[in-house]
Amino acid sequence: MSKRALRMAGGAAMTLVCGAVLVGGSETAVVQAVPIGPGCPALYMLGIQGTGQSSPTADPTADSGVIGALLRPVIATVPTLVQRSYIPYDAAFGGAVPGGGVDPYVTSVNDALAGLDSAAVQVVATCPDTLLAAVGYSQGAQAVAEFARSVGSGNGPVPAERIAGIALYSNPTRPSGAPVFPGRPGQSVPDPAPGSSGAAVSGVQVTSSASVGGGIAADDATYGALTGRVADICVDGDLACSAPDNAAVLHAGAELAAQADLRDPIAAVGSIHSLLSAALGDAWTEFVLNDFRVQPDDVDYLPAESLSQRLIDAADPRVPRPSSDDVAAAAGRWREITTAVTVDPAAVLPKLAAQLSAAWGQLIADSSDLVNPAVWIRFGDTVSRHNGYAVTGQMTSGIAWFIALARDIAGSRS
Asked: In the chain, what are the helix, strand and coil shares in percent, each to the nearest 5?
C-alpha cells in the first residue's frame, strides 16, 4: 500500500453500523437495501455512475448514464446469470455540476464508497455462492478503485475471492502510465473468476488507448490479490485519467477543488482561499520537519520528498493533516535551523541557498507541462473524450468480459 493510501486508511475510517454508514465519524448516509432476486445469480454487478449521473434517491435498477451502457447489454444477454444494481449517491462536485449534489467531491466519493461497501456485504451475506463485479465511471471509478484496493489488500468489506472482476472507466486515481491491467504490463486477457475454468474469459481482450499520463488524483496504490482482475480503461486525452505528469500545480489545484464549495463564484473564491492557506501551512510543516539535516553549526536541505510532492500531499484530502504536535515540532525545528545558520552564516548560507534553489528549479520543472502547447493539444477535446466512453466503443470489451465471467462462474457450478 502506498504512503498516501496508508494515510487515507488511518485518517478516514468507515464503520458499518445497523444499516447506516458513518463516514469519517461525522456524516450519516442512509444505505439502501440491495435489490436481490428472484434467487441468487452467478454474478452480481454493482455500478457507480459519474458526477451528475446519480442521486441519493436514484433507482438502483435503472440502466442509465455511462455505466448503464455496459450493464444493460450484459443483463440482456445473460439475464438468468446476472443481477445488478447501481449505488445511489450525490454524484456531487461542490454544487458546480448540473445534476449533482452540493457536497464537495471528496465527500461524494466517500459516500459512494460507503454505499458500495455496504452493498457488497449484503450480496455476499445473502448469496454465499454468488461472485461480485463492480464497474465505475469517473467519480464512480475513484470509489470503485478504492474499494478494489482495500479488498485486494485484505482490508476490504468482502474477501478477494468473492470478486470476479472490476472495471474502471476514466479513473481519476489511475497511476501514471498504468497498463490496462495495473500491475500486469502487457496483459489484455483478464484473469479468470475465482473457482472457474476461465474458458469463456480466455477469449476476451480488454484494451485501452491511453499510455501516458495519469489520473488527476493519481495514487500509486496497487490492487494486491485482485491484480489481473482489475481493468483501468482510459482514453488518451481524457484529462480525468491521463493528465500530464509534469503538472504539479494542476494536480494540487484539483485536490483543493475536490474539497471546495463551488456553488457560486463568491463561495468558490472563499472556499479555495481557505483550503489553499491550510495546504500551504501543512506543506511548510512537513517541509521543515522532514527535509533538513540540522547540526549545531550546519544545515543541509536533504528532501525526503520534492517540493511539488509536498504541495500535492498537503492539498490531498486523503492525506491527514499534520497534528498540533507536528506544528509545534516544526516551529522548534525552524528555531534549530536558524540558530545553526547564525553560528556560521558565511559557510552555511551559500550552500543552503544553492540546495533550495535547485529544489525550486525542480518545482518549476514539475509543472513544465502546463506551459507546453504541444502537451495541451492532446486535451483540445477532453470533454468529449471524457463523456464518450459509452458511444465510442470503449465499453465493448467490458461487456464481453462480464458476460464471459457469468458463463464461466455458472459453468463451474453446473
From this structure: 45, 10, 45
